[in-house]
Amino acid sequence: MLERFKKEEGFTLIEVLAAMLIVSIVALAFTAYFSNALTFAKSNQNQTIMSNLARNALVYMQKQDFVRLKEYFGSGSATVVKAGNGLNAQRVGITPETFGTCTNATTGACAFRNMFENGNLQPVMAVLQPTVNGIQYRVVIEYQQSLNRSGDTGGDLLLPISATVTTVSAGAAGPGVDGVTVEGYVNAQSIR
């Protein structure tokens, strides 16, 4: 019986340790891969949220008073989103700060608060400053004057705008997700 045990061969300690080393190196490589995949999935999720918030803002703006919105963008009271220079015209829009200080004021941008239903600014502030999954976002509505058409091609019936969503805290949406912009039009009431 002892002779039978002596003839059986198994793995030596060095062979077992070498196999464990190889398995751990492969497992480490897979761990790094899954960590990168998780980061990528999270940034995609945040980018999708930002796209949905931008679409939500566009839909909200499409339901507002077209005439008053057009008057606001054409007025000197419109919030400057990007300053112009010799080549590019100044770009105007609506930011969370545009109506943030309006109480009962009827001057400046506050004079246009009636473009929103009953002059109620709470819904527009909720659209422009949403918080999703603990991340606070900032939405800027911009009038795209360069895309505006002439009156004979329907320009007086469509108002080109874009909604740009960014996070309030830089990098909160994950690596590589700086902002999302979605473009659309506000239709005149006559063609809605």
Automatic annotation (TrEMBL):
Keyword Transmembrane set for record: yes
Name of the protein described by the UniProt record: Prepilin-type N-terminal cleavage/methylation domain-containing protein
Record organism: Saccharibacillus endophyticus
Taxonomic superkingdom: Bacteria
Keyword terms, alphabetized: Competence, Membrane, Transmembrane, Transmembrane helix
UniProt-listed Pfam families: N_methyl
Keyword ATP-binding among record annotations: no
Regions that span the bilayer: 12-34
Intracellular or extracellular location(s): Cell surface
Location (main, coarse): other
